[in-house]
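Supplementary Methods. Inverse-folding protocol.

Structures were first reduced to a discrete structure-token string of length 143. This string, shown here, constituted the complete conditioning input.
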């Protein structure tokens, strides 16, 4: 796999203090620059920015569910592809913190091309996140 450059993603949250606690403490992401209504976080080398939007619509109004491998995947969602050890550690951390999963950590497409570990959960504002991992990173775009 070639070296990837970091992506940037800005998205709304209903409360900036709540976002700081979730992304900074729960997920353990280092905080970068911030102001009263936004915060940069380092998402495994990528820049995500939470922007406060107090009157944002509820998750049920924003997210559509799309069937994938027998599960209802919330769309839109974002996240990163981790190495398997980091994925397992994050899954364990989230379980220990009592995070409610939309889709519990499991192996998707088991025994097939594109086999991957995945998990889905929501932030306190209802933004859907997916973290995944591959034993073989060459399977990321395999058909």
């Amino acid at each position: 796999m070639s070296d990837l450059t970091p992506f940037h993603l800005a998205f709304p949250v209903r409360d900036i203090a709540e976002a700081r606690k979730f992304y900074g403490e729960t997920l353990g992401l280092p905080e970068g620059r911030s102001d009263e209504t936004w915060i940069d976080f380092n998402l495994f080398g990528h820049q995500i920015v939470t922007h406060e939007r107090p009157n944002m619509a509820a998750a049920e109004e924003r997210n559509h569910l799309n069937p994938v491998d027998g599960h209802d995947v919330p769309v839109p969602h974002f996240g990163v592809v981790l190495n398997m050890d980091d994925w397992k550690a994050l899954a364990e951390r989230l379980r220990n913190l009592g995070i409610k999963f939309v889709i519990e950590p499991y192996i998707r497409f088991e025994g097939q091309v594109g086999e991957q570990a995945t998990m889905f959960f929501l932030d306190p504002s209802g933004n859907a996140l997916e973290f995944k991992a591959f034993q073989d990173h060459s399977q990321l775009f395999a058909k």
